[in-house]
Amino acid sequence: MRQGSGGHGSAIRFRATGGFLLVAHLLLVGWITLRPLDVPWVSAANLQPFAGIKADLALGGLQAARRIGESVLLLAPLGFLLPLAGGRLVVSPWGSLVRTVAAGAMLSLGIELLQTGVPGQVVDIDSLLLNTFGVALAHVAVVPAVRARLRRGDDGERRVALPREEAPQGPTPTIPRVGIAP
């Protein structure tokens, strides 16, 4: 196994690039979701799960696909931008998925809560569910394959030393004849 050329430097570049793209995406999401809308009327907040999705499906196939797709795709890039900004190649796949989905859900919840004070924007629990689903879908579709590719490199040779299980080192040493203080 050999260390890839610029091993530590490339990790820093991945983190910097991921951080920059993450901030740019969040600024775009903030502009899309938190700007006031000048509308003649506003529908009531939807706090019943799947009620908005059912209403979208009642509109017909193309309209439903557009509305549901917008919600799924809005935060989907976080599914790979958050791990990219983390910059680690060797992590538990399940742990990475759980951390990324939880962070995506919290960001979506924050957006929904901020929308309560924005004229023309309405809180919708289905947006939170669909945004979180989009983050999970993007993470599962992109991150494992990209991490495996980056660990292996173009020539198929392993570039990152994967951690090995360490042998147990035995019990903790004790010093005889040393009493415990009263």
UniProtKB/TrEMBL annotation:
Bilayer-crossing residues are 12-34, 72-90, 97-116, 128-150
Keywords, A to Z, come to:
Membrane, Transmembrane, Transmembrane helix
Residues annotated as domain VanZ-like: 23-142
What Pfam family does this protein match (any one)? Answer: VanZ
User: Does Cytoplasm show up as a keyword for this record?
Assistant: no
Residue span of region Disordered: 162-182
The protein's name:
VanZ family protein
Species source reads Streptomyces atriruber
